[in-house]
From TrEMBL:
Listed GO MF terms: deoxyribodipyrimidine photo-lyase activity
Keywords (A to Z) from UniProt: Chromophore, FAD, Flavoprotein, Lyase
Protein name, entry field: Deoxyribodipyrimidine photo-lyase
Domain of life: Bacteria
Signal peptide: none
Similarity-based family: Belongs to the DNA photolyase family.
Entries under PANTHER family matching the protein: CRYPTOCHROME (PTHR11455), CRYPTOCHROME CIRCADIAN CLOCK 5 ISOFORM X1 (PTHR11455:SF9)
Species this chain originates from: Nesterenkonia lutea
Cofactor(s) in the UniProt record: FAD
Length: 462
């Protein structure tokens, strides 16, 4: 028997999954393909998931187990060090190959490189595949051979490549009888998802997440179909109106790999170019963030522009009351507070509001962007290792393509422009017109001037 172990990570789907498909195509007998997911909270440089993402992961793994079972494939669950677990499990299973989809963060790449070097020493071959990006980071370079640091020319290059994109691959054909085939006797059973306690219980704060999301592979395809059928035509303008929420809401499905970017891109091509251009550029921005993380692995924790190391940001410990007022939606600025409450309730915040909320924290409250990034990491269902820090650095001005770095969003003007009838803020702040809503905790004009003075001091440092 030639058995292949398919290690799932952020690719929790069965369709357009090259690692899975090739394993199935090479299988000679039922039971030759075994799936594995490792909850890795111990490897250096691999960031443990936040609370909202853990909720999504639980349901995504439930969905994946069911979809793989329909193909006759068992999904094993393990928790711990993947370097130890993979070798031991492959040997117990008698697996001759391990397949996985490539990852691009610095810590993850180090883990994968170590395993890829170690397994062949034990007679186990390793093959890795692209599953998460349209174009892998090392394939997109400037004319001088370096990484792009500005989005527009990056997008121009990958847009020109569109006709050459591979088409999404089908779901493997699985023999039904394989579902009943016994695995070899293992030192551990398949593992129970409930034992990981990914879902909140004391208290159960996930009611809003359950009401707003269907965190399954089928749910991702249904959302994509609905968006392209009813909303993408007006996306260019409607995406800025949070009361209507005509954004795609596909980001968590892409983050966990329940949809692949190739599937999204191919489906969007069925629409007129005029209606999908702006939407596809958002897929391009996601690619750009991963491009940055691959080439600058310090992205999640270090200013990409070193002169910003001199900026006098405060930590949340220096200003705990102001930070919690921001986090809980009690700043006295309805545009920001509505966004923060939406985030806590649904695990999602409209992108237009995200920018203003981040700007208020960093530039008006003077709190380090890393504090806000960490809060979003814990509360967003779509928080990923590239887009979350890249977008926070963009707002802070310390990242790539962040010009003008001194831009400061005015939350009052944003509300007047994009929510003139207060439909959005009234939804999330029912006490808005009562005496219970707090007064602004800062003066926007004064704090703006202070931030600009700080920016002026560091502007000549590099």
């Amino acid at each position: 028997m030639t058995r292949t172990l398919v290690w799932f990570r952020d690719d929790l789907r069965t369709a357009d999954h090259e690692a899975l498909l090739q394993a199935c195509e090479r299988a000679e007998n039922p039971g030759d393909v075994v799936g594995l997911y490792v909850l890795d909270e111990v490897s250096p440089g691999v960031r443990p998931l936040g609370g909202a993402a853990r909720w999504w992961l639980h349901h995504a793994l439930e969905s994946l187990q069911q979809n793989l079972a329909a193909l006759g494939i068992v999904l094993l669950l393990r928790r711990g060090d993947p370097a130890e677990l993979l070798l031991g499990l492959a040997q117990e299973l008698g697996a001759e190959r391990v397949h996985w989809s490539r990852r691009y963060g610095g810590g993850e790449r180090a883990v994968d490189a170590g395993i890829k070097a170690a397994l062949p020493e034990h007679g186990i071959a390793v093959e890795s595949f692209n599953a998460s990006l349209l174009h892998e980071p090392w394939t997109v370079q400037t004319n001088t051979g370096g990484p792009y640091k500005v989005y527009t020319p990056f997008w121009r290059q990958i847009s020109a490549r569109e006709p050459g994109l591979p088409r999404p691959r089908p779901v493997p054909l699985g023999p039904v009888e394989a579902a009943h085939r016994r695995l070899p006797e293992l030192s551990q059973g398949p593992g129970e998802l409930e034992d990981w306690q990914l879902l909140p219980t004391s208290p159960d704060w996930a009611g809003g997440l359950r009401r707003n999301w269907t965190p399954t592979e089928a749910g991702g395809h249904a959302r994509l179909k609905e968006f392209l059928a009813t909303q993408v035509q007006d996306y260019d303008d409607a995406r800025d109106v949070p009361a209507d929420d005509d954004t795609s809401r596909l980001s968590p499905y892409l983050r966990f790999g329940q949809l692949s970017p190739r599937q999204v891109w191919e489906a969007a091509q069925q629409q007129s170019p005029e209606s999908v251009g702006t939407f596809l550029s958002e897929i391009g921005w996601r690619e750009f963030c991963w491009h940055l993380l691959f080439h600058f692995p310090q992205l999640p924790h270090t200013n990409l522009r070193p002169q910003f190391d001199a900026y006098p940001w405060r930590s949340r410990d220096d200003s705990p009351e102001e930070f919690m007022a921001w986090a809980q939606g009690r700043t006295g600025f309805p545009w920001v507070d509505a966004g923060q409450r939406q985030l806590w309730e649904t695990g999602h915040m409209h992108n237009r509001v995200r920018m203003a909320s981040a700007s208020l924290l960093i530039k008006n409250l003077g709190i380090d962007w890393r504090e806000g990034e960490a809060w979003f990491w814990d509360t967003l269902v779509d928080a990923d290792a590239a887009s979350n820090p890249a977008n926070w650095q963009w707002v802070a001005g310390c990242g790539m393509d962040a010009a003008p770095y001194f831009r400061i969003f005015n939350p009052q003007r944003q509300r007047e422009r994009f929510d003139p009838e207060s439909r959005y803020v009234s939804t999330w702040i029912p006490e808005l017109n009562t005496g219970e809503y707090p007064a602004p905790i800062i003066d926007l004009k004064t704090t703006r001037e202070e931030a600009l003075a700080h920016y002026s001091q560091i502007s000549g440092r590099g």
